[in-house]
Amino acid sequence: MAAIETEGLRRDFAGGIVAVDGVDLAVEEGEIYGFLGPNGAGKTTTVRMLVTLLRPTGGRATVAGYDVADQASDVRKSIGVALQEAALDPLMKGRELLQLQATLHGIRKARGDELADSLLDRVGLTKAADRRVGTYSGGMRRRLDLATALVHEPKVLFLDEPTTGLDPVSRQAVWQEVSDLNDEGTTVFLTTQYLEEADMLADRVGIISDGKLVAEGTPEALKAQVGKPHLELSLASADGVSVSSEGNDAEEDKAEEVLARFGKLLPPRDGKLLVEVAHGASDIAPVIRALDDSGLAVESLDLVEPSLDDVFVEKTGQHLEGDDDAVDGAAEPEPAAAE
Ligand SMILES: Nc1ncnc2c1ncn2[C@@H]1O[C@H](COP(=O)(O)OP(=O)(O)OP(=O)(O)O)[C@@H](O)[C@H]1O
Ligand SMILES: [Mg+2]
User: Fold this and answer.
1) pLDDT in tens, 159-179
2) What is the CATH number of domain 228-304?
3) How far is the C-alpha of 163 from the C-alpha of 202, rounded, in Å?
4) Which ligand is in closest contact with the Cα of 211?
5) Atom 17, ligand 1: which residue's CA is nearest?
6) Domain assignments of the chain as residue spans, ordered by start
7) E strand or H helix that includes residue 9
8) I want to staple 66 with a disulfide (CB 3.0 to 4.6 A). Which of 24, 74, 123, 171 is the partner?
9) With helix as H, strand as E and coil as C, how does 114-167 read?
10) How confident is the model at residue 238 (pLDDT cuts 50, 70, 90)?
11) How many Å apart are CA 50 and CA 55, to the nearest integer?
12) Best residue for ligand 1 mutational test, from 10, 45, 160, 213 (most atoms within 8 Å of Cβ)
């Protein structure tokens, strides 16, 4: 049975906004599914429908086998949710908040206290347990929010942008926690704007843009669709001149002949030779050895991997991170100067 399944899931808002526009998903039990997309793509709206906070206006969805519209309370018992905007009472202490959460889930006090302690330990907040949440950093809040989502040991965990705005150390801590939970069997549905996060954590990634799923697969498969990794290298020739400068054609030819044994040669760029390789990092040593055997010394070598951003660009014509400009150069015009 799929942990999460949707068919034509759709959500309209007043004013003709289609936030989620017919999404089909099947997340297997035990998977970490990364839902990747830019601002406004429809990630949160999808999550809100799946966790029964918002009714779909079209299609259907089941979570843990229960229909989100007709069996909402069964869905809620099966899931943990950490939303994008964590609503934590700033006046409460971390420990109190977890104890309260346990009570709300009908857990007896002694057991709830135990749970609170172990969850605080788990997310690294034991020292801050008796401080008010209002004094926590952003990262500490996200971790506490994650802990509250775990109180009733949910089968399926929904995390909406769990690491947005966190520093690298806190981000790593959340990744580790998510990965540990998943090792224990929890299915995780996680939204993110970060390519690296989807790449590192997710077993499978769905890319959403304008309410539509535009690509789906393992990070490896998605990246393989847009191209293989390639090596970029420059040679140190005997006279210290780069091979691609004039007068070294013979050496360049020889190098290309060697490189072609490893994969497709790509057009040279910036005086560097480019060759596609099948495996990536494990191809580096054999390539260097083969060049060496032919009397060619490598001056520099870089492994360039296709990224999920390349996938995103291919599907949408936009970069996911960094800039909002269209890749084809159709950037927003500058505002006209006042006449
Ligand atoms: N309650 C609402 N009323 C009207 N429009 C909404 C509402 N909630 C979301 N939208 C619109 O639906 C679209 C998708 O929003 P959503 O919050 O799902 O995006 P998101 O992918 O989570 O973005 P972000 O990365 O910024 O969190 C946006 O155009 C948004 O303006
Ligand atoms: Mg969102």
Assistant:
1) 999 988 788 888 888 899 999
2) 3.30.70.100
3) 14
4) 1
5) 44
6) 2-224, 228-304
7) strand 2-13
8) 74
9) HHHHHHHHHCCCCCCCCCEHHHCCHHHHHHHHHHHHCCCCCCEEEEECCCCCCC
10) low
11) 9
12) 45
Q: Which two tokens stand for residue 264?
A: 């497709």
CATH class of 2-224: alpha beta
Short-list 273, 252, 272, CA closest to 263: 273
Looking at the CA of residue 20, tell me the nearest atom of ligand 1: 14
pLDDT digit string (tens) for 56-94? Answer: 999 999 999 999 999 999 999 999 999 877 778 889 999
pTM score over 0.85: no
Q: What lines the ligand 1 site, CB under 6 Å?
A: 13, 17, 19, 37, 39-45, 84, 193
Buried b (16+ CB within 10 A) or exposed e, 303-326: eeebbbbbbbbbbbebbbeeeeee
- Residue 334: pLDDT band (50, 70, 90) is very low
Q: Whose CA is nearest to atom 12 of ligand 1?
A: 19
132 vs 337, residue with greater confidence: 132
Q: What are phi and psi of 185, to 5 degrees?
A: 110, 0
> What separation, in Å, do the N-terminal and C-terminal C-alpha atoms of the chain show?
64
- Out of 17, 46, 320, 324, mutate this one to test ligand 1's pocket (max ligand atoms within 8 Å of CB): namely 17
Distance, in Å, from the CA atom of 146 to the CA atom of 82, rounded to the nearest integer, reads: 6
**Res 326: pLDDT:** 36
Question: Ligand 2 mean position to 248 CA, how many Å?
Answer: 55
Q: How far is the CA of 300 from the centre of ligand 1 (A)?
A: 46
For residue 193, the ligand closest to its alpha carbon is 1
